[in-house]
Amino acid sequence: MNSAAPPLNLQTYSAMDCPVHGLVTILSGPWTTYILWLLRQRGPMRFGQLKKQMPAISAKVLTERLRLLEQTGILDRHQEATIPPKVTYSLTGRGQELHGALDALDALALKWSGRTAWA
Amino acid sequence: MNSAAPPLNLQTYSAMDCPVHGLVTILSGPWTTYILWLLRQRGPMRFGQLKKQMPAISAKVLTERLRLLEQTGILDRHQEATIPPKVTYSLTGRGQELHGALDALDALALKWSGRTAWA
DNA sequence: GAAACTGGTTACTTTAAGGTACCTACTTGC
DNA sequence: GCAAGTAGGTACCTTAAAGTAACCAGTTTC
Asked: Under CATH, which number does the domain B11-99 receive?
């Protein structure tokens, strides 16, 4: 993070001089932290399983979120060579690392909201 | 963070069941981490000073970001009873706490981007 | 031959967010 | 009397993001 003004749109996050902004921007996409939470709680999940947990999201947006997380190395996408296709998403090592930092934010969020820690 | 699906728009972050999502969503607004970084580096700043550091942002959006950060208790807004008005923004205790967690994300972002830590 | 399955893709429409230009308040200086 | 100062507010326009509906591939089942 330096004094250069950060770029404004999501597509340039990888080129910007402020890596934390890029990472935060990735994480803030609607549903992203929820996807990460689900995969942490339940382990690897298929596209359809994720979709069922989030009926209010369109398949198009879910695909975009998953692709972004895959491209940034936070999720792993594994497709079996079957018809119909069978794709499983799981957290990478980076995804696991990320949870340490997210837990810190989560702890602050919970502390500030006056809630007890979630089980 | 529980299994309930998080709401989608920024305005409901305070009501959602996933506090970390709300916090991350707040932080991801364009320029937000930059504002926080500026205030941390330089101490309290006036609206016009902030604006000068970010010529590409409109006064309208800067105002919205600052208001949001004030409403969530991350920034303090102090207005002197003068004409013309003189408003100074500064980090609250929460804002200071937040930087611990942001530093963890920053460290991950830098590690992943293969960059040396910023001075 | 049609339906179902899965994980998408795509063109078009709708909605949300941001930008722009103008405006506000009151005091001071000229 | 007008301009300047500061920190905004607001209506309207533009742009970006999301939603929708139809579609795709190939195999299996009936």
From this structure: 1.10.10.10
